[in-house]
Amino acid sequence: MERSDRTLIIIGGKEDRANNKVILSEVARRVGSGKLVVTTVAMTNGTDQLFEQYEKAFRALGVKHLYNLEISEREQATLPSKVKILDDATGVFFTGGDQLKITSQIGDTPIFERIREIYDDGGVIAGTSAGAAVMSETMLVEGGDENSHVIGGSVRMAPGLGLISGVIVDQHFMERGRFGRLMGAVAQNPKNLGVGIDEQTAIVVERGNGFYVLGSGGVYVIDGTQVTYSNIAEEDMRKTLSIYNVRMHMLSQGDRFDLLNRSPRQMKGRAAEKLPEKEEEQETATV
Amino acid sequence: MERSDRTLIIIGGKEDRANNKVILSEVARRVGSGKLVVTTVAMTNGTDQLFEQYEKAFRALGVKHLYNLEISEREQATLPSKVKILDDATGVFFTGGDQLKITSQIGDTPIFERIREIYDDGGVIAGTSAGAAVMSETMLVEGGDENSHVIGGSVRMAPGLGLISGVIVDQHFMERGRFGRLMGAVAQNPKNLGVGIDEQTAIVVERGNGFYVLGSGGVYVIDGTQVTYSNIAEEDMRKTLSIYNVRMHMLSQGDRFDLLNRSPRQMKGRAAEKLPEKEEEQETATV
Fold first, then answer.
1. How far does the CA of residue A91 sit from the closest CA of chain B (Å)?
2. Of the candidates A173, A176, A266, which has an alpha carbon nearest to the alpha carbon of residue A222?
3. Where do runs of H (alpha helix) occur along A179-233?
4. How many contacts (CB atoms, under 8 Å) link A and B?
5. Which of A177, A180, A248 is closest, CB to CB, to B246?
6. DSSP 3-state assignment of B250?
7. What per-residue confidence (pLDDT) applies to A208?
């Protein structure tokens, strides 16, 4: 593949793994005859069962070269035997779990260097839930569900893997009432575009400069460029956020977004037409 | 009072009734030495206990003339003995419960005519939760919690009391993940401004042309005037809403909003300064 083909598939969680698998199909399609590595680094327990779920799904979608990269301690992320699993890989898939486990265990290690290389060489890096959160430079870690943002509130952020810049991603977006916390993140620095992704929904980021939506839910783009006032820097930490003149787009399958000029447009062709029915809730071990 | 003083106090639910009572204080302050009628028409059971809660709260806030208007069937809304309770009233307070009970039982009855008169004569009409939803011409009744809006989805609307026009109000806003459904309502007709009010938070609408925020949470204003595209009228009812270029303001205590030119600004003085601490969750019979 050429460098220009590099792709991120950022999934809001609970993507279908058993039925029509709209989102995982896209991962499989882009991996093609290449090699896909699934990593359960975000998980502590149940990693085998989780890998098996993905293995079954991806095999059914025609992925022939599929490997499991399990890392339960940071030390392992430096072992040549682990790095070797990523040899010749053209795709990496991060499962859900805990985003801090991902960054604390592979950040600044040979494993991450290799993943970065795979991406830069034109590969596909996909992640769901915690695996989606880690894509951006700064990631949302905890807090703020079902609440408006309070200036000194409990929302925690941490440095992510930084595969995409200028964007802060949040997942399980409407399902967990995360509008407030993403607004808080954008208010703190409007250079970042807030992108909130629903469950069973993904953005496919092509060449880092635009994305389209895949799946049954919504994607919320929060643009603070034109904000005229916010109280985010006030001293009284008990205050609820106030911010004027936010521009927002709500996107769904059939929409594309240009990250360079921050504008949405309708897309035509395949992805716009094949609309998946709402998937049934699945029972899975992941968050 | 003069006609120009008429006020709506629209509360997102769970306002404090036991401690500092920031929102109920404002109701009491505006009723002053006048007569306040609390109506539990939205409730089926437990109306006595609920009235007692409000009675205790309002008496503690200095309201001397306080009456209970209980209506359990539509027939009662035409009885002279019930209408009489509203004689000389300068304030009416709608408790929470079921918004359809309010509109179906008092819509187009002498009771509602009288309430409308009280308002037009410069009185204060307040409502919390279901009592807040009924204020607008069209009210949100059910569905859509914690989900992005689906075109043919389960969100139900119904005609409200119409005390404020050009606005659709939603309550328990962040707490119940109602961003999606309010976006759906605005997409259907952007002439309506969407106003989502958190719990323990209220808007005080003065003379119908502007409001300020009171309480500890946020108020979300969704303005569809500049929307450039939406798929709301598409035939495929399974599609998730898509809408571009929504303007949004998130307001909190200290902010004022002009409904005529749809613009926010910071306010000065009393209401901006006295910030209530976040109230503790209360156990109450209402929704």
1. 29
2. A173
3. 179-188
4. 126
5. A248
6. strand
7. 87
- What is the chain A residue with the closest CA to B244? A249
Beta carbons within 8 Å of A191's beta carbon, 6+ residues apart? A166
Residue among B183, B193, B75, B98 at smallest CA distance from A248: B183
- The confidence band for A174, taking pLDDT boundaries of 50, 70 and 90, is very high
A81 is annotated as an active-site residue: no
Give A120 to chain B, closest Cα distance, Å. Answer: 32
Closest CA to A110 of A72, A70, A139, A81: A81
Q: Residue A118 to residues A3, A166, B184: CA-CA distances in angstroms? A: 10, 21, 41
The residue written with tokens 């808007």 in the block is: B203
- Is B172 in contact with B144 (CB distance < 8 Å)? no
Mark yes or no for CB contact B248/A247 under 8 Å.
yes
**Alpha-carbon distance A222 to A219, whole Å?**
10
- Residue A202 has phi, psi (to 5 degrees) of -140, 155
One DSSP character per residue, B56-70 reads: HHHHHTT--EEEEE-
d(CA B120, CA B127): 17
Q: Tell me the shortest Cα–Cα distance from A269 to chain B, in angstroms.
A: 16
Residue B180: its chain A contacts at CB < 8 A?
174, 218
B270 compared with A29, residue with greater pLDDT: A29
Place of tokens 């659709």: B168
Name the residue with tokens 């680094």: A41
Is B147 within 8 Å of A251 when comparing Cβ atoms? no
B127 touches chain A (CB under 8 A): no
In this prediction the pTM is 0.91
End-to-end CA distance of chain B: 32
Structure tokens at B101: 């009970």
Is the Cβ–Cβ distance between A282 and A14 less than 8 Å?
yes
Structure tokens at B30: 């505006």
Query: pLDDT tens, A117-133?
Result: 999 999 999 999 999 99
A254 three-state secondary structure: coil
A66 touches chain B (CB under 8 A): no
ipTM of model: 0.90
Q: Answer whether residue A274 shows pLDDT above 70.
A: no
Residue type, A207: R
